[in-house]
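> forwarded from #structure-qc
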């Protein structure tokens, strides 16, 4: 423990009320298993914590308070334990059983000296057997890890993604509220294409995402797939379904766009609104629609 903290404990003044005594006992109780006869020493002090007990600080309480304060600051109590060692030492020999058997206390449970220096050859061989079994277990774990990697690599392919290429992204449906409750067979496996803007780190890429996709635009290479455009028919790769976050769709056609404006909300970006005159309807029945909801008519906007 820091010497400054030890000094604070040594200078701890005697409590004059219950709250101060409770604070002191809370500190001492943390080290109770290292203080011999803790319960008997703390008994007079804990009596003062009882309900409706009058506060009477006697000489006996002062003596036990000073004794506990001194016991907490002893080096044996404040030393940090090394859990790799055996703590129980014999009072007659001053050594642990492992030190008497092997001649040395190991720093870790499975580290032993190369040569035998102790008195019990059987104990040394038993500990060496433990070390051998540990090495065997490690070798089997390494073998299993290599086998798992070999099976996983069968479905992997080297990614050759470069800045400027178009890629498809495999989104997690749980990231979009619009997809909650939908069956997984009704959700497209990949969305896109999106353009690679830059490379982040070794295996992540930043993509140029549309504004309606409110999602972080850096993705791992494992969920990206190269997009191959059909040069003879570029529209072949375009989906007729609504974008992943949009659930609105229209079964009518646009006759004309009568007006438009930007609608702003506090703390949000402006949303483009269009006054749509629908085909086979009068101009009085025109409705205001958001730009994102008119995804079917992007060629007319």
């Amino acid at each position: 423990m820091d010497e400054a903290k030890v000094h604070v404990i040594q200078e701890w003044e005697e409590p004059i009320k219950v709250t101060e005594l409770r604070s002191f006992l809370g500190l001492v109780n943390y080290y109770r298993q290292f203080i011999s006869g803790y319960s008997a020493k703390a008994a007079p002090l804990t009596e003062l914590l009882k309900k409706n007990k009058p506060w009477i600080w006697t000489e006996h309480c002062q003596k036990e308070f000073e004794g506990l304060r001194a016991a907490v600051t002893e080096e044996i109590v404040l030393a940090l334990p090394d859990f790799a060692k055996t703590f129980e030492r014999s009072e007659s020999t001053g050594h642990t059983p492992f030190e008497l058997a092997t001649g040395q206390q190991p720093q870790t449970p499975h580290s032993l000296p190369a040569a035998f220096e102790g008195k019990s050859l059987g104990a040394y061989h038993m500990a060496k057997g433990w070390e051998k079994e540990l090495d065997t277990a490690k070798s089997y774990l390494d073998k299993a890890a290599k086998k798992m990697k070999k099976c996983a690599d069968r479905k992997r392919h080297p990614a050759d993604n470069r800045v400027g290429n178009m890629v498809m992204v495999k989104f997690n449906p749980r990231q979009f509220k619009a997809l909650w409750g939908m069956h997984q067979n009704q959700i497209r496996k990949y969305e896109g294409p999106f353009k690679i803007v830059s490379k982040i780190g070794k295996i992540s890429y930043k993509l140029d995402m549309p504004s309606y996709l409110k999602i972080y635009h850096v993705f791992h290479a494992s969920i990206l797939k190269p997009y191959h455009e059909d040069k003879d028919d570029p529209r072949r790769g375009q989906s007729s379904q609504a974008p992943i976050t949009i659930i609105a769709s229209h079964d009518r056609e646009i006759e004309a766009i009568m007006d438009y404006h930007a609608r702003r909300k506090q703390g949000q970006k402006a949303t483009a609104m269009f006054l749509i005159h629908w085909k086979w309807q009068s101009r009085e029945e025109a409705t205001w629609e958001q730009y994102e909801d008119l995804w079917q008519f992007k060629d007319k906007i």
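QC bot note: Residues 109-156 form one domain. The chain has four domains: 3-75, 109-156, 165-237, 254-293.
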